[in-house]
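Quarterly update from the structural biology core.
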Amino acid sequence: MTPRVFLLLFSLAFTSCRTTTPPKTIRLPPTLSEASGLSIRANEFTWHNDSGDGPYTYTTDENGSIIHRDTLSATAFDYEDITHDNTGNVYLGDFGNNTGRRTEQRIFRYHPDKPGTDSIVFSYPGQNGEGRDQTGNFDCEAMIWHRDTLHLFTKDQLFGKGSYITYHYRLPATPGRYVAELVDSLRLPRRVVTAAAFDPERNELVLTAYNFKMLGGFWPSGFASLLTISDFPEGRFLRGTVRRRNLSWFWPTQFEAVDFYDGQWLYVGSEATRLRKLAVGKRKKRR
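Predicted structure, tokenized:
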């Protein structure tokens, strides 16, 4: 047993008997100013930046201090979300496509205790790289793993021809080249989806979503929401009951990461802004 595996098992045992409340706010270091994805295992928080960083993931403790950085044998175009399976594999989604010019995307799979990085290469049905106004909504910032399958929830554009529809696609969680399978869609009025997490014990999916606009043409304003979806048919997440709660109002805040901490709490991550110089993780009570 490696020291890292021992520490993970110890942390899992410790998690089951937690008696203290986790920090309300985790202030991340400048290295993670564009924190765009979050995966929580035991007491460790694994983050990644948006576009502009290298092929890295950063693991912090509950105070935001970096424990270690993993370097993937991978490219880094536009990382948007991260998740893990029940054997310790981590999946990092390089599938940001704001301009609509990409014709294929990648999800990198690695294990923190094993060498090498695998690639899941995919395209969407009908994806042609001809711009963001193409029908199909081929931008994505939200992903979960569930029963050996990766589920993607796309992000519509805020301006132009966007209609606030998120599409649910799925892919095998094994290396290879695929065309994503369209499962469902859901219209979320005035909101675009930016992150996802799944709780297999409660059988609940959570999504973060936000909007942004300029008031009077010069003052930035926005709002963000946490959507909890439950009571859905197997694998058809967007057919469930949707409950919405506000994360922020008026102030432009980009909540782009979410994961469950335990049965009582979850964390949402927000990138740094001009008004707040550091990215943060915010503790939220589950309902």
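The first strand starts at residue 25 and ends at 27.
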